[in-house]
Amino acid sequence: MDSSGSSHHHSTYGERSQRAHRHRRHNKSTTRRVNFLSGVWAGFANLFNFWGRMRRSEYWWFFLFSILFAIGSYLGMLIWLDSGEQILFEKYGMVDDYKMFPYEYTSLSWPFYVLMALLFSAQVRRFHDVGLYAWVPYAKLLVFAVLAFYLYRLAHAAHSFHFDMGVIGWLLLLAFLALAGVIAYTACKDSEKERNKWGRSPKYRRKIYEELPPPPNAPRRGNLRKM
């Protein structure tokens, strides 16, 4: 009976080793799949977390929610402005464009500011998840702030959304798009399996991806008799 127990123990260890090798080879996740609701929850629950990690599926589900929210908010603002202009026209007659412009600019711009705010911490944690420092999201946020201020000054001077961006505006826009492309490419990478300086992997968290300890020595038959 003792020998059978010992062989059962060693066979179990062999099965565990084979299972670990199979998971490493196929690069499978050891956690549950992320759906839309869990991805949105992961984004909002860590909205002010700039140190942890975020897995790929969580980021893209939250990215989809943020895009849909920004588009819906923008369309809602268009409807609101159209009805507001109609009310002002019926009450006060014709309203000058330079009086309506600051209100229109603020209303139509805030969905994009909210979009950047929602995705910023998620982008930082996505970089951490693949083992990279998040200087690209910070640079993108800085370029976006400078570009938004620059465009506001031009639009405010022209009292209209139709204005010439100039060389500086186009350079800032190209820099923003280039940084956004780097972020999108990095966000498509898989999570690091090992723990890094920003914490454990949110995708590969079971010990099956860690080195298995050697099997314990089976007790000798003479020691069993003494027991």
Q: What is the N-to-C order of secondary-structure elements (H for helix, E for strand)?
A: HHHHHHH
- Judged by helices, strands and strand pairing, the structural class is mainly alpha
Helical content (DSSP H or I, runs of 4+): 55-70%
For the biggest sheet, the summary is: none
Structure commentary:
Helix content is 69%, strand content 0%. By secondary structure, the protein is mainly α. Helix 4 packs antiparallel against helix 5 (135-158). The chain is elongated. The model is unreliable at 1-11 and 207-212 (pLDDT under 50).
Task: Identify the notable features of this structure and list them briefly.
single chain; 227 residues; mainly alpha; 7 helices; elongated; disordered N terminus
